[in-house]
Sequence to fold (208 residues):
Amino acid sequence: MSVPNATVVAAPAASAIVEEAPVEESAATPVPLRELALAYLKLGGTSIGGRSAVYLQDELVHRRHWLTVEDWLEGMSLGLVLPGPVGASCAMFLANLLRGPRAAAMSLTLYVLPGLLIALILAALIFGGARPPWANGAISALSASAFGLFLYTSLRTLPNSRKTRQGPLFVGLAFVAFALLGADLFVVLLGIGLVSLIVNRPRPRGKE
Fold:
């Protein structure tokens, strides 16, 4: 009589063990806080020009390989639709992916502080009196280098558009509408973005 009772008790225990082993999704290893802080401090001191988000891609995606291009594109898209600078919004989003909300707040401070200090120093040197002759040449050189980096990172991002349905077509339409026709950025993102979402919506399995 004892053997049947033992089998009845053992069966639920085995099923409980199976049920208590949930399948977890793989997560990226968090970046050390010190390395993240140094990276954002470097970005804050070297990201020149109004396209600072491209520096985030170059540093965090291509150099350090902490994130994917898709992560950067998601942060860039979020920064374009939120009020305020695109780079700051993208920086907070990416830092949040790497270390969470507190690290994102710290990273934003380190990202903004060097530029603020440099702007104050340059304002005191340049606008405090007659502009020195070297200032115009330095500003032109920095602007040219920033534009070159923007082109470089843009070309590295372009192949990712091929992963989406009609990706190059939407890129071309957005460029024509915004850069050539002067359409409002919000209208371009809303119109072309919605069409792209519809075209790239997930398809039911078995229907290709």
Observations:
- The chain has nine helices and no strands.
